Amino acid sequence: MGGCWTAATGDGPGAVQVPDYGCDMTGLNHAEEGNDVGFVLSAVEFSWDSIITVTVDGVITSWNPAAERVFGYTKCEIIGKPSSLLSPNDRVDETRTALAKLRTGQPVENFETFRVRKDGTVFPVWVVAAPILNEDGAVVGVTAIHRDVTEMKRAFETAQRMTSIVEHSDHAIYGRTLEGIITSWNPAAERMYGYTMQEVVGQSIDMLIGVDRSEEIRSIPASIRAGEHLEHFETIRVRKDGTFFPVSLTISPVHDRDGSVVWVSTIARDMSERRKATEIRRSLAAQENRLNTVMRSASVGIVLAGMDGSIQVVNRAMCDLLGYDEAWFLAHRLDDLVHPDEVEEAARDRARLIDGSREPLATKVRLVRSDGATIWVSRAMVVIPGQDGKPDLLMVQARDITAEHAAHQALA
Length: 412
Prior knowledge:
The chain is α+β, with helices and mostly antiparallel strands. The chain has 3 domains: 148 residues, PAS domain (Beta-Lactamase), CATH 3.30.450; 102 residues, 2-Layer Sandwich (Beta-Lactamase), CATH 3.30.450.20; 136 residues, 2-Layer Sandwich (Beta-Lactamase), CATH 3.30.450.20. A 5-stranded antiparallel sheet has the order 4-3-7-6-5. The longest helix has 26 residues. The N terminus is likely disordered.
């Protein structure tokens, strides 16, 4: 067994030997055949965790292959060197404190700290260390297991970020099994569907789906099992209070390490407001089309003006009536069309209409043509509300009644 032991406490008759787990174990395994030593040494040799031994003074005496991979030092480079070489400068005192505790015979369990690789990079580890005792029960060395938790930390931090995103998302996000059992439920889902997490987790997804959507229920799991990702899938869902509402779903398969689909993640967006806005836009567009058709075909002059009186749209009949082109109208206001003696009265009429009257206002008024001539028109004004229901535009219609007015004046 001479090749498998390394002096742990010095030279001379009192020296105690500690097994070097990184050396050739053939001789020891043969010598100890029939007991558990060979099994233990084999486990050390093939462990994924770094396993090293040190003297009570912290000198490294053994170094398994996993330690080579984790720290970057070969066995020949590191054995005989102080274990403080593996600690960052700001953690050396921490390592000494742990070693002092081990000298008293106490183990160090689940100790989370940092170590430094040969290339200088610092990384997180979990350390479990135990004292090595001789036949008399005296501490003669230490065995330390280091587990590199870099990937575990990174995965945990990623999971924490994702959890925060899910928790604070404005969209409903929930998970379910392939059999349709709900497994997770974020606060936005509570607000959207009306169920608390306690009410819905463990229940079937059927509680969120309308009774007439059985085909949809069957087709989505089939596609998800095939690994497909569904995006912007529009359908109908039902709230706790029984109301149905439109949603857009993004449904994604979640895979395990083997690539098998194990559950389903769903992001649901409530489309109610968007649908309503779309319907309003369509309604307004239809109204605008009807209005444009009326304006183009009307034989009377029509203008659309803002609430401040600025002209925004004018039809051909109005241009012909007053003799101005469209560009002139769009650069002027309603008051610019009215005879100077009637501007104040026209402004008061407009103000009364804007202040609350929804009935068309019909009056006779004088307008001034581009050639300076005055004409009498029958004028009608009506308020056109915007999307919010508040007054948005004024529609003014003008029909030439100059001849009629002259006839009445002659009879009078």
